[in-house]
Each structure stands twice: as C-alpha cells, then as structure tokens.
Amino acid sequence: MPVMPPKKQQNAGGGGKAKARRPRSYGERDSEEYKEKRERNNVAVKKSREKSRQKSKETQEKVSGLRAENKLLEDRVEVLQQELNVLKDLFMAHSGTASTAPATANLETVNKDHGYTASTPPSS
C-alpha cells in the first residue's frame, strides 16, 4: 500500500495563507495620508452606525404598528364570531330546530358591547 503524505492544515477562515502584515511604525501614524484615511474611516463608521440605528428604529416602529393592527383585527374577528353565533341561533330558532350551542348573548348585546347602535352599523 502506498504511503500518502500528510494533509496540509488549513486555517478555519477558508484555507489560504494568512497575509503577513507589516507592523506600522509610529512615524506612519503621524503622516497626513494616514490621518486623512482615519478621518474618512471614522466618518464612514459613524454614518454606517447611524444608518443601522435608524433602520432598527424604523423596524421597531413597524412591528409596533403591525401588532396594534393585529390586535384590532383579532378584536374584529371576535365580534364577527359572536355575531355569527347569534345569527346561527336565530336561524335555527326560526327554522324550528334548536342549535346545539346557543349563543350566550343576542345580537343587540353584542353590538352594544362594541359600541354599535342601530343607526351606526359596524364598519368593515
């Protein structure tokens, strides 16, 4: 059986050789070019972080709005479910058969509970 050479170990970052960085001397940090690059980078970082904060704020506001809308829709479903139960019971009573689960409130009570009157029908 032929002997295989050992496999080369790779970095966790994807395999290639790591770049050798040359150490910066203190003299380079005093150069105008370095200072300008740092200033541009600082401005870019501030802009990026502000944009990220703004996007996060907008997302939170949207989530809050959607939760409020969802709550209103859930309430509306509840009202419609109660109205449906009352109407089913009325239909069954009119047709001569009893419902297996009579509604606990009549339509007028449901409407009153939710602020509806005969002159102001529920809005869809």
Automatic annotation (TrEMBL):
Coiled-coil stretches noted in the UniProt entry, renumbered to this chain: none
Domain (BZIP) ranges: 31-94
Biased composition (Low complexity): 1-11
Bias kind Basic and acidic residues: ranges: 25-41, 51-61
Annotated family: Belongs to the bZIP family. C/EBP subfamily.
Gene that encodes it: LOC106159323
Region of interest (Disordered), ranges: 1-72, 103-124
Keywords, comma-separated and alphabetical: DNA-binding, Nucleus, Transcription, Transcription regulation
Location of the protein in the cell: Nucleus
Example of a GO cellular component annotation carried by this entry: nucleus
InterPro entries: bZIP (IPR004827), bZIP_sf (IPR046347), C/EBP (IPR031106)
Gene3D superfamilies, A to Z: 1.20.5.170
GO biological process: DNA-templated transcription
Gene Ontology MF terms in the entry: DNA-binding transcription factor activity, RNA polymerase II-specific; RNA polymerase II cis-regulatory region sequence-specific DNA binding
Pfam families: bZIP_2 (PF07716)
Protein name: CCAAT/enhancer-binding protein gamma isoform X1
